[in-house]
Structure formats: structure tokens, C-alpha cells
Protein 1
Amino acid sequence: MYGAIFTDVLGKTPQRSKPVDLANVSLINHGLKIEGVAMKVEITEKVENPLLQRTEIKFKVNHAGEPTPKRSDVRAQLAAHLSVPEELVVIEKLAGMYGRRVASGIARAYSSRERLEKIEPEYLIKRGLPAETKAEAKPEEKPKEVGKKGGRGQDN
């Protein structure tokens, strides 16, 4: 009884298919995705701002089967799309949509490094940089003075 060969609805023995190499294939939302496929950046809106000498961009990133991409990767893709150096692109916002493999964002591309540093806040400039570059850009902190007590005007 237990050693019987199972058959399909028509009474035929099921055929075995060719083995599939599952090392490079993953199942995502009941569809197949081949590893190594790069994310796709699509610019949805592009506005030239001549007063501030920058281009303001709204974009979507399709990252099927992958986690939300790093800001540095998106920054590189945007720089390639706009034909500007990567260090002149600042990503203000990059947010994934819950349950979807799409992230949307806002970025700005400047005409020069001086304009970028003059207009953009420092935290946005540092946000997309690699970790070792952030450490170099961090200013030295002053050591706290020892012996002073904080309080509400008490002289102790």
C-alpha cells in the first residue's frame, strides 16, 4: 500500500522534469527572478531651477526581489542618467513602499560643488557618502571641561 506509485488525475505516472540549478534563481511573488539583475531607476519628474543652479528630480526605483537599495547606489544611477558627477547629486528622500518592490525619492543635482555646499544642509551632503568618507568629514569635538557642575545657578 505505501510502496505504490502515485499517479495524476488521468492515471498516468508523472514525468520528472529536468533538474533546475536553484543557486541563481529565487521565487518572488510566485514569479522567477534571476539574481544579479540591477535595479531600475526611472525619473518621473525633472525640473530645472536656474535661480539655484540645480535640477530637481523625483524618481522611482524598481528593485524587484532586492531590499531597498543604498543611497550611494541610487545616487550613482541618477548621476549616470543626468550625466553629472556623482558628488553633485544629493538625495533628500528615499522611501520604500510597503509590500511593493518600488522606492520613490527626491533628489537634486547641482551645477557646481560650491553651490551644493552653499545651499544644502551638511547632514544631507554626508548622508549619501560611504562610511570612511563620513569619518574623515566629521569635525573634532572639544573635550568637556572637568570640574564644572551643571545646575540651576547654584555655586557649589
Protein 2
Amino acid sequence: MEAFHLIRTSTSILLGCFLLSVAACASAQAQTWRVYAVPGEVYTTQVAPSIPDGWALSPDSSHNVLAGITIYDGPPEGNASLVYDKQSRKKHMLFLTWTLDGDSKKAFWIVCRYAGTTIQLKRQLPAGIKALRVTFDDLVKTEGEPTVEKIEYL
């Protein structure tokens, strides 16, 4: 009878562990990536502080597309850029993921770089973001680098 009780208890423990594992997986899968919208393009006009004698300024508006992003721990002026901590591929798509401490009091920032200009846009990320994932397309290049296709967060 003791052996039966031991087997039944072990089975109950194993079943409990299995159910906890299933619940944990379901919880992890319930977290879905949501799109984090950034400007895909900006229009810029350059200004020349001085013009050589004999020349005239011919201003031209430029259409500049998103060329890349950088994630910062704190305001970008502090130069504390973060390196992604996970990289994966699926065919020609490259996925880079930054794990952020969503419960932290720290402020994380995103900076968007644009092709053909030194203009960058920066913004503090909303509090509570736990991860940021950027999808790049290796088949489409922007300034020689894979093009940003999508930015998502948890």
C-alpha cells in the first residue's frame, strides 16, 4: 500500500509540474508583440552657413527614409546605447531583440536615424516596456544596411 501511495503522490507531483509548465507556456504565448510606430521618413532641408563667392544657394528638400535605430539607457546625450541581447533569422529577415527592465525606474529612449541626413528623431519609450524587437529585411538595403521593416514591443 505504501508503494501505491508513493507512486500516486509522485504521479500527482509530476502532473502538477506538467500543468504548471503548460500554464507558464500559455502565459508566455499570451504576451503578443505590438507594433511600436516610428516615423518611416522625414523631409529635411539643409542650410549652408556660408556660400563661396560666385556661387548661389539652390535649396532642395530631401526625402529621408528610416535607416536604423539605437536604444539608450537614459537620454541619448548620456551615450549609454544598448546592444541587443538576442538575434535570430528567418529566411532573409533578421530579428534583433533588446530585453528591457520594464519594472525599472530607468527611462529607455529610442533614436531613429534617417538616410541622407544627420537629422535624428529621439523619444523616451513608454514605461513598462519589457522588450523591443526590430525586424530587418536583408534583401532591401538602406545606405548599404538591411532595411528596418518593423519595430515591436512587449
Protein 3
Amino acid sequence: MLLKKSVGMSCIALSMLCVSLLLPACSSRDDSVEPSGMSISVTLRDVHRCSRLSPEIVVESAPQGTRSYQVRLIEYRADGERFLGGGSWEEDGSGIIPEGALTQYYRGPCPAQGQSGKYGFVVAAHGSNTLQPLSVRLYQFTQE
């Protein structure tokens, strides 16, 4: 009986040790490291405020096999996120999604007069034979 109890306690102790060693590895994250690979930049001008004219978006270092981009504009509000439209663009080798290219219900950032709003462009690079994006990047900004 004592041997059974001792073996049972050893198993529990070993399990606890494994969990305590592995758990920090699952939850730790180094936020100082930038993700490698695809990056995006957005050229916002006054003409894009409260407009159906989307800005130029430059995609650099897109994954090999990228055939198109899906772009979404999101507004971050106190009551959640709001989709403001977007669109898709076929990759032509330039890495540039031209100004005005996003036509799928697109409406540019438009905070209330005298206030600022938080927004984000989500750009997903897609290959030809999969629904899973090859890479996704977020460009966040504040519009006044």
C-alpha cells in the first residue's frame, strides 16, 4: 500500500514538474521582435478621409506564390470593431495596390468632427489553390 501511494505521488509530482516547465514556454512572447517577411505601408492623404477613394498600399516581401491580396479596413470602436469595406487586388509583380483599387463597399476613415478614431488595414496575401492566406499583416493608424 505504501509503495502504491509513493508511486502515485511520484507520478503527480512528475506531472506537475512537466506542466510548470512547459507552461511558461507556451505563454511567453517577445514583443520586441518584428515578424519577418511581408510588410505593408499605406499612403494616407486628406482626400482619403470620409471618401470612397482608397489609399495606395505598398506590399513588400510578399510570400512566394502570392497571386492576390485581400484588404479590409476596420474601425476600432468602444463597442467593438466595424468593417468599413475593402477589396481584392491581383498581384501584378509591383507590390502596389493602387489608389482607388479597393471598391468592395469601401468607405475611408471618418471620425466625428473634432474627434480621432483608430483604424486598421488588414492585408492578406493569397496563393492560387488555397483559402488559407500565405501571410497577413495589420497597419494600424489614428485619423483625426
Protein 4
Amino acid sequence: MKKLLTLLMLLVFAVGMVACSSDSDKKDDGDTGKQEEQQNGDDAEKADEEAADNNGEQAEGDAAEVASENKGFQEFIDLLKEKGLEVNGIQEGFGDVPDFKDNINLVISGEDMLPVEIYELEADSENLKHALDKGEVKVVFEGQEGYLPATAKGNYVFLLAEGHPDIETIESIIENDFTGE
């Protein structure tokens, strides 16, 4: 009886192994296809990143040109450097503030996740008037409108990231030294 029961268990085990092995072969073929798709996706993603990097270099070059041609932007950059802050990058701005003439983002002290956004707005802009009066500026992002805290002086609006380690120095420069002329 024990031999018969053992033989029966071995038979069930063998059938189960055969059934599972044929399923895993199918899954392996599917996985291989998925791996190839993943590899192709990774290659495409790398190509996209390289293109973005190249566009970023171009955008950074264009932004640096905009900054050098805009007296207010250049004044602010010079003031940052005079106060001992390092300007690590000048990038093309996001353009989320309506009625802007020019805008750039500055990477200060290596804080590329917390850029300082600077917008030059039209002198007669309602958004500029609101920023000067209320300390907030209207932004439009992906079709949604809202207001963000902002510092405004002259025709310039500054969006400062709250967690930036040099925020007090930057605010002091805007308030006390920056003329925007």
C-alpha cells in the first residue's frame, strides 16, 4: 500500500512538473519578448535623453544670451556674484507667468532642483501690478491657473524656492540692491 501511494504521489508530482514546465517555457518566450521591448525602450529613452541634453545645452546657451542682453537679468546675476553666491547655470525659463517679455532660471549654489525663476513683465501688465500689490503672481501650468508667492521689483518678478539654502541672501539682494533698470 505504501508503494502504491508513493508511486501515485510521484506520478502527480511528475505531471505537475511537466505542466508547469510547459507554462514557464511560454512565459520565458514572453519574457524574452518583453526584455527585447524593454531594451528597445531603454535605447529609445537614452536617445531621447541625449536629445534633451543637447536641447538643454542649446537652451542654456540661448538663456545665457538672453541674460546677457537683458540689463535687469545681468544686474541680478552680477549682484549675486558680488555677494559671494555661485551662479552655476542660466537656463531657459519655464514661461508659466503670463505677459512676460523675457524669463530665465538661475541655478544658484548648485541647487538645480531649486532654481530662481526671473520674469520681466510688460510695464502695463495686470499680472505685474498684482505681483507688486499682493506679493503673488498668476501662473498658468498645463491649462490650470493659480497664484504663487512672488517678489516683484520694477518690471521683474522673482519666484523663489522656499527650501533654497541662500533664500535670505537672495531676498535681501532683491529688496536692497536690485534696481531693475
